[in-house]
């Protein structure tokens, strides 16, 4: 017997204050209704051994920023759930991938999606990992396409056509660049 797909819009998210401390919960759909409620989220970006980053194009059925290119995967931990554990689950669900993830920082952003009227207002934990030899097996309900890209090429693309990418992607890149030295040290 197959399980019905999870209604992700009704799952609980952890609301946070301006310092990222938990202050309550609400459903995903409520947190993303304008003007938005600040809540915990995560963004994963995987690298290959050549230094390329794995991006995904969000599926057309996404309720926020559909069909835009973004980091490898993203989502929300359940209230009290460790961020890295939640990120590993979403990585498997969205792209059929598994690898060790390391948190390199967090940032706060708020962005409205003019196409859907929904809002992102997130305390976003950024995690990185290395993918060697595995090939993404995307869930078509989550991911329309995927591609590897060099960091400089992505920065150029973001400058040339920012409307083709999610509004949080530049912040993810900034956190990774700021934490690069720390991340490198943690792997030695």
Automatic annotation (TrEMBL):
Compartments, record wording: Cytoplasm
Subcellular location, principal: cytoplasm
An annotated Gene Ontology molecular function: isopentenyl-diphosphate delta-isomerase activity
GO terms classed as biological process: dimethylallyl diphosphate biosynthetic process; isopentenyl diphosphate biosynthetic process
Pathway(s) of this molecule: Isoprenoid biosynthesis; dimethylallyl diphosphate biosynthesis; dimethylallyl diphosphate from isopentenyl diphosphate: step 1/1
Residues that bind Mg(2+): 94
Naturally occurring in which organism (per UniProt): Nocardia arthritidis
Protein name as catalogued: Isopentenyl-diphosphate Delta-isomerase
Positions annotated to bind Mn(2+): 32, 39, 76, 120, 122
């Amino acid at each position: 017997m197959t399980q019905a797909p999870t209604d992700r819009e009704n799952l609980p998210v952890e609301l946070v204050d301006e310092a990222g401390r938990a202050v309550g919960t609400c459903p995903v759909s409520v947190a993303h209704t304008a003007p938005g409620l600040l809540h915990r989220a995560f963004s994963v970006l995987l690298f290959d051994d050549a230094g390329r980053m794995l991006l995904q194009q969000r599926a057309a059925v996404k309720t926020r920023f559909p069909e835009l290119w973004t980091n490898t995967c993203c989502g929300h931990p359940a209230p009290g759930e460790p961020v890295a554990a939640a990120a590993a689950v979403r990585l498997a669900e969205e792209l059929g991938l598994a690898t060790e993830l390391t948190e390199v920082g967090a940032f706060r952003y708020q962005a409205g999606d003019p196409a859907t009227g929904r809002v992102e207002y997130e305390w976003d934990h950024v995690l990185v990992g290395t993918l060697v030899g595995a090939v993404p097996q995307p869930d078509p309900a989550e991911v329309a396409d995927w591609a590897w890209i060099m960091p400089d090429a992505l920065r150029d693309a973001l400058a040339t056509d920012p409307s083709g990418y999610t509004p949080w992607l530049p912040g993810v890149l900034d956190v990774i660049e700021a934490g690069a030295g720390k991340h490198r040290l943690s792997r030695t």
